Structures are given as C-alpha cells and as structure tokens.
Amino acid sequence: MKKIIVGAFVGAILLFAWQSLSWTVLHIHDQAYQYTDKQDTLLSVLKANLKDGQYMIPRAAPGTSRDNMEKISKDMNGKPWATVTYHNEYKYDMVMPMVRGFLIALVSVLLVCFVIQKFAKRNMASIFWSVLSFGLVCFFFVWYNQHNWFQTSWVVIKGELIDNLAGWGLCGIWLGWWYSKK
Fold first, then answer.
1. Is the CB of residue 66 less than 8 Å from the CB of residue 54?
2. Coil, strand, or helix at residue 54?
C-alpha cells in the first residue's frame, strides 16, 4: 500500500507542478486564449443575453425536429459560429481550483498505480510506456476526440498535447523508477 500512496502522491505533485509551469512560467497555452480589444463590448452583449453556461452559436432550439436540425446545420455551412463559455461573475479565487486540480491529479495517478500493481513484471520501460500511454489516451479521448467535434484549432489542442506528454512523461519516469527499484 505504501508503494501506491507514495507513488500516487509524488506523481500527482509532478503532474500538478508541470501544469502550473505550463500555464504560468512557460506560457504554453497563451495562443489558445486570444485577446480582442472588443472584449468590453462583447461582454456587455453576452451579459444582457446569457446566463451561466456553455453555448454553441448558432444552434437549433431544444425540441427541433431531426429534419429541421439537418437543415439548420446545412444552412450554417460556411458561416461564422462560436463556442462560448459564459459566467456572470468572475471570482478571483485560485485556492479551490488548485485544490481540485491537485485532487484530480492524485486520483488519476492513484488509478494508474493500481494498474501498475497488477503488472506481473515491473521494469522502468514497461511502467514508463504504460503511464505515458495513459496520458495519451486522456489526450486523444478528451481533447482530440471531444474537441474535434467542435473543430477546435490545433493552437488550442497543441498545448494540451504538450501537457499530456510532458506531465505524464515525468510521472512515468517517477513511477518507473519507484516501482522498479528493489
């Protein structure tokens, strides 16, 4: 049990630390969130028309028939569209998002450690590649598969790929060493 707890805790620290560096010091995600000098105008229009939530604009109204949805989709072809995540109020609180981020990293690495514990033969290479594969599965399914439907640009997805490769790579090096040492 010590192997799992220590492995998961240190692995979570590595993942969390990489994410922190990626977003703050290394600025890997800067291109994903662009600036517009029209932000005050856009926010006032959004505030007057939306409540908290995520929107795809344009989109068929709830209850629209399948035929009408298909017509709307065809009519949208070649026209502007947007995905908007809107919040009525910004709260400057980094504590809870950081706590949740660390807990998500801890649970994720804990799950990987449970899988590693089942390996009949544990060596540095097999553990490293298994952990890195886990990170790539997370990327492919969450970022590439889910966001591909919204035609998310490579500029956004690239930062997430770097984070998955680097974060889970560091975690794989750690867990490979931790589990293969005698």
1. no
2. strand
Q: Are 47 and 14 in contact (CB under 8 A)?
A: no
Q: Quick one: angle between helices 154-180 and 124-138, nearest 10?
A: 150
CA distance 182 to 177: 10
Q: Which residues of 123-162 are buried (b: 16+ CB within 10 A; e: fewer)?
A: ebebbbebbbebbeebbeeebeeeeeeeebeeeebebbbb
- Each residue's pLDDT tens digit, 85-99: 999 999 999 999 999
pLDDT at residue 149, as a whole number: 67
pLDDT one-digit tens code per residue, 106-125: 999 999 999 999 999 899 99
For CA atoms 45, 49, 51, 57, the dihedral sign is negative
Q: List all residues 6 or more positions away from 41 whose beta carbon is below 8 Å from its beta carbon.
A: none
Q: What would the pLDDT profile of 49-74 be if each residue is shown by its tens digit?
A: 999 999 989 999 999 999 999 999 99
Quickly list DSSP for 25-41: TS-TTGGGS---TTHHH
In angstroms, the CA 166 to CA 18 distance is 7
- pTM of the full predicted structure? 0.86
With contact defined as beta carbons under 8 Å apart, do 138 and 33 qualify?
no
